[in-house]
Design a protein that fits this description.
The protein is mainly alpha-helical. The chain is built from 18 helices and no strands. It has helices at residues 3-13, 15-37, 42-54, 60-74, 82-85, 90-102, 107-120, 127-136, 146-162, 169-186, 192-205, 215-226, 232-245, 250-267, 273-286, 291-307, 314-327, 333-336. The chain starts with a helix and ends with a helix.
Length: 340
């Protein structure tokens, strides 16, 4: 054996070589993650995904980044173009399932992939991947932060209605209860978006999993301190949820509505047609809960609906007309677009 060959063998086995190899692989992983996040179209993402899946260092973080980026990009892609562009992502689904079976998936990855699946359910559904996540997530929820818990509960509410056959009653119960426990512990860390997501999800899940209602007092106690920071979408979601929860959590809803009504009145001018429609629908259902506050709010909503430059779709028109009919005796302004 030559001296040079012996030195090469020694170098390969040395801690320095292993350190350099690890550092190079770490750098390659980071560069791939940045490339995934930097894609600007599904076509470009599909090309990067193919390369990433072939890499020896591909891991759950890359899979999570691919799913998240795909969910974001599909919302900006014309629906007619989606079927042809999404054909190349079956390999990603299979690899994600494999990673879940291996157990090499963090709480953050679980939450991100579940959230992404909720956005992709109409264009890239996968019952096998969702089944794997349902089994895996309960063991990870205890280590999730406030955002991950909020996103997971929101996604669960979306997916159990979109893909109900994937969820058994026992699995859904277990999944929701561990998320409820985590959210109850970390509600003080939640920002307006998290609280809005949790309120919406609670209202959606209450008939399937009544124990989710345990969250309502915790959320209602937190929202008034955050309500001024809420954007119109958050306010409209919370108002809609309050209307859905009025019979199941009457006292908590009664405490919440005045704070929501005041902020909605201030920000109604920034609301889009869906948010306005949801708010006036909720006001009709909640009028007996906070009549004074809503009597002031409804005329403001009506004025904004009449002034909105974008025409409502039929469902929004129907909802608004129904609410106006319910409100007409209590708030006459709902018929004429506000006081003159």
């Amino acid at each position: 054996m030559s001296a040079l060959f012996a030195m090469d063998c020694l170098l390969v086995r040395s801690p320095l070589w292993r350190c350099l190899a690890t550092s190079a692989e770490h750098g390659a992983k980071l560069r791939m993650t940045r490339r995934i996040k930097g894609t600007r179209s599904i076509k470009e993402l599909r090309m990067v995904a193919h390369e990433a899946l072939m890499a020896s260092y591909f891991d759950a973080i890359h899979a999570s980044a691919l799913y998240h980026q795909l969910a974001c990009l599909q919302r900006a892609t014309p629906p007619a173009e989606l079927p042809s562009q999404l054909n190349g992502f079956c390999a990603l689904q299979l690899r994600m399932e494999e990673l879940l079976r291996e157990g090499d998936v963090s709480p953050r990855v679980c939450a991100n992939v579940l959230w992404s699946m909720a956005y992709l359910v109409d264009v890239l559904p996968s019952s096998s991947l969702l089944s794997a996540l349902i089994l895996h997530l309960p063991s990870k929820a205890g280590a999730m932060d406030a955002q991950q818990l909020s996103n997971s509960l929101w996604a669960t509410a979306q997916l159990c209605h979109s893909m109900p056959l994937v969820f058994s009653a026992g699995e859904l119960q277990k999944m929701v209860l561990v998320l409820v426990a985590g959210i109850s512990c970390k509600a003080n860390d939640m920002i307006p978006q998290h609280l809005s997501n949790c309120m919406w999800a609670t209202a959606q899940l209450k008939d399937l999993i009544p124990d989710v209602l345990k969250l309502v007092p915790t959320l209602v106690a937190r929202i008034p301190a955050q309500v001024e920071r809420m954007i119109p979408q958050h306010l409209a979601n919370c108002m809609w949820a309050a209307a859905r929860l009025r019979l199941s959590a009457a006292s908590d809803v009664a405490n919440l509505v005045p704070a929501l009504a005041g902020q909605i009145g201030r920000k109604a001018g920034q609301m889009n047609r869906q948010e306005l429609s949801n708010c006036i629908w909720a006001s009709a259902h909640l009028l007996d809960v906070a009549p004074g506050h809503l009597a002031k709010l409804v005329p403001i909503l009506v004025v904004q609906i009449c002034r909105h430059s974008t025409p409502m779709i039929p469902q929004q028109v129907s909802t608004s007309l129904w609410a106006a009919a319910i409100l007409k005796n209590s708030t006459p302004e709902s018929q004429n677009g506000g006081s003159k």
